[in-house]
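Supplementary Note 2. Why include the ligand at all?

Several targets in our set were suspected to adopt different conformations when bound, so apo predictions alone were not considered sufficient. For every target with a known small-molecule partner we therefore ran a joint prediction. The input for FNR is given below.
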Amino acid sequence: MNPVLFTPLKLGEVTAANRIAVPPMCMYSAKIGVAQPFHLAHYARLAQSGAGLVCIEACAVTPEGRITEGDLGLWSDECEAGIAAVVDAMRTAAPGVKILIQLSHAGRKASRTAPWLGSKPLGIAEGGWRVRAPSDIAFGADGPRPLPLDFDECGALVRAFAQAAKRAERAGVDGIELHMAHGYLIHEFLSPLSNTRIDEYGGAFENRTRFAFETADAVKSAVAARTAVGLRVSATDWVEGGWTLEETIELVHGMKRHGLDFVDVSTGGLVPDARIEEAPGYQTSFAARVKAAVDMPVFACGCITEAEQAETILRAGLVDGIDVGRGMLDDPNWGWHAARALGLKAVPGLAVPPQYERGLRL
Ligand code: FNR
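The joint prediction is reproduced in token form.
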């Protein structure tokens, strides 16, 4: 039987050669939002991994929307040129790969040091900036108190997402993933733990999801139909009183109605003290619940590291696509090795980079 992992997957008008996706992973190595030579090498390498889809890391839609000073951005012509160069490097390295980019705003989790420096809040005196969020509730005990966004600023940020989406499309990506997960701005609107607003953006589900839907609509209208648009969502906050799986399913239903093409289901990130036990496939059951409820391509992520594990999940019909994140950093030829492990002699639809053919022969 042919492995399901190596069958094509359609996201809107975009067809990926297989169901392996590299999820967005911040490298914190940009300068004023602009991609550097590191990114060209890194993304060219991931483009050659044998994955059908590679999603470029979270790109901030405004400078204040960066987690760290090193985040990629997409708010200026310089940023756009940097992403265009990254996309070019990826297409040169692997003509068949489909390229997504994640658009994000870090909300109250902005202005921090890189993970290898402790992810500590970066004060204004140290080059940081005032963090903005739906409400003035800090992230964790050491987090700065955010200045709540006023109504007009919410509209301006929705437009910033749309503008960044246009830039991404001009830079040549095949699709856009809206970051609504991991405790960043859009997730902060969704969760009652971080959103205590009393205007149209807070309170009932309809209000907490308003920013998300406005963003989805603005981005959809900003790009052509050929550009796939999807979302990444945290299916639970892992704490009492937080955003729930049931709300996630409702949100994804709505996103389907609003014309989005795929959903990538993650969890957590809203509060620092949530208890999350990472184990193989620990988030897959959340993605499977979404898949069972909504007719839309669903990706699972989280500790899926083995080809057989990915194949078993797909064969059971739990989800449509598999994210391999840290596994790809560990082994950037993961896709080729997965094909070999599942008994294939080639990765259908993707050419072995001719320069590596003698080493990667299956
Ligand atoms: C991440 N993750 C992440 N998620 C996201 O939505 N946007 C991002 O930019 C990042 N950045 C990031 C950087 C690094 C170094 C890691 C390791 C992770 C989360 C990532 O996409 C993925 O969901 C998790 O790593 C879980 O999948 P794996 O790694 O277990 O396959």
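The chain is about 35% helix and 15% strand. Residues 151-171 form the longest helix (21 residues). Comparable summaries for the other entries are listed in the accompanying table.
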